[in-house]
Amino acid sequence: MKRAQEGTFPIPRHSTTTCALAREILDRVGDKWSVLVVALLANGRMRFTEIKRSTNGVSQRMLTLTLRGLERDGLVTRTVHPTIPPRVEYELTDLGRTLLGPVRALAEWSIDNRDRIRAARARYDAAHAREQRPATT
């Protein structure tokens, strides 16, 4: 592999299958609800209703699908307690906890750069608003 230039991000060459698998995993762990659920579970196990209450705007169906996907990928465990009604709790697995570092780094980056991003959006919107105006005759 050629030596990467300083400041570049070396991307190893992989097969199409490897890239497809990586994309599939990134789709899971990069999904906004997955990131939020992982961050919430960093503090320990939570019941479904606690997670739902803590995630503003997620539907019950979307949260169920997110938790199932995280469980399928081995990032979360689901424990059903035999009570009436059944109590269901979710917790990060050891693999899921390895995701906390990147999730925290992304959250910190977002917070650190929110003003710059807000300013960039304003510049972009202003420039494109001028482009969208109908020409006057």
Short characterization:
The protein is mostly helical and 137 residues long.
Question: Any chance you could write out the topology, listing elements then pairs?
Answer:
Layout: H1 16-30, H2 32-41, E1 46-47, H3 48-54, H4 60-72, E2 76-81, E3 87-92, H5 94-97, H6 100-132
Antiparallel strand pairs: 1-3, 2-3
How does this structure look, described?
This protein has about 140 residues and is mainly alpha-helical. It has one domain (about 20-130): Arc Repressor Mutant, subunit A (Orthogonal Bundle), CATH 1.10.10. The protein is about 60% helix and about 10% strand. It contains six helices and three strands. Strands 1-3-2 form a three-stranded antiparallel β-sheet. The N and C termini lie far apart (about 60 Å).
Helix content: 55-70%
Series of H and E elements: HHEHHEEHH
User: What is the H level of CATH, i.e. the homologous superfamily?
Assistant: Winged helix-like DNA-binding domain superfamily/Winged helix DNA-binding domain
How are the strands ordered across the major sheet? 1-3-2
The first-level CATH class is given as: Mainly Alpha
Could you tell me the radius of gyration in angstroms?
Answer: 21 Å
The class by helix and strand makeup works out as mainly alpha
- For the record, the count of structural domains works out to 1
* Largest sheet composition: 3 strands, antiparallel
User: How much of the sequence is in beta strands?
Assistant: 5-15%
